[in-house]
Amino acid sequence: MDTAVPGLVPGRWTIDTAHSEITFTIRHLMTTVRGSFTEFEGELHIADDPLESSARAEIAMASIDTRNEERDAHVRSPEILDVERFPAMTFVGRHVERATIGRRARTPRYHLDGDLTIWNVTRPVRLLVEFHGVDGDPALGTRAGFTATTSLSRADFGIEFNIPMQGDKLLLGDTIAIQLEIQAVLDEPTGALGRPAADRSAGDDS
């Protein structure tokens, strides 16, 4: 089966944080509150067979931004995220497979399975990843675009803060929906043998 992804060169791709974002939503009473994490870093390691690729990301918990300073301070406090004790969440993606593509899908889609660690608690997470193609020029470098989505239970990571409301209702929902808009820059291409392109050229001259 052909697993090639047009334009996606094997090698190390670094997330361009200036052109990427990590956003989330959570239910607050009967509506949805949106927020983001503004400080993060990561990289993709694209293999010769794209389905053998991997990814890594680290997100600064204190960078949470819900557009309300008082609320953000509370979320950062020991009562909820406790960012002093747990300054980062990490994701390590280990397995890629093709996702079922419906007739309306306009871009290739894949599942990226990995481990998410929050509060020193690690749980498996599956991302649905859409690949938007590769573009760039000598000034910008070779760039690839992705959108990834997932949802998780904050209780699974021990984050259970809530306030009881009338009846059996709670102030906050448990499910957090996450969306990533990622632009990654090719830093170090590799060839079929997994060597950097420069090494490959030198070897070919010998």
Describe it:
- The protein has 206 residues and is mainly beta.
- The chain has helices at residues 69-76, 197-205, and strands spanning 11-15, 21-28, 31-37, 40-46, 54-60, 64-65, 88-98, 109-118, 121-137, 141-153, 172-189.
- An eight-stranded antiparallel β-barrel has the order 1-4-5-7-8-9-10-11.
- The two termini are 34 Å apart.
Salient structural properties:
206 residues; mainly beta; eight-stranded antiparallel barrel; 2 helices; 11 strands; elongated
Can I get a quick summary?
The chain is mainly β and 206 residues long. It is built from two helices and eleven strands, in the order E-E-E-E-E-E-H-E-E-E-E-E-H.
β-strand number:
11
Cα-atom Rg, whole angstroms?
Answer: 20 Å
Q: Find the structural class using helix and strand composition.
A: mainly beta
Low-confidence residue ranges: 192-203
Total number of helical segments? Answer: 2
Average pLDDT rating:
88
Major sheet: arrangement of strands: 1-4-5-7-8-9-10-11
Identify the overall geometry: elongated
Series of secondary-structure elements, N-terminal to C-terminal: EEEEEEHEEEEEH
Q: Strand-residue fraction?
A: over 45%
**Main sheet record:** 8 strands, antiparallel, barrel
Fraction of residues in H or I helices: under 10%
Distance between the termini: 34 Å
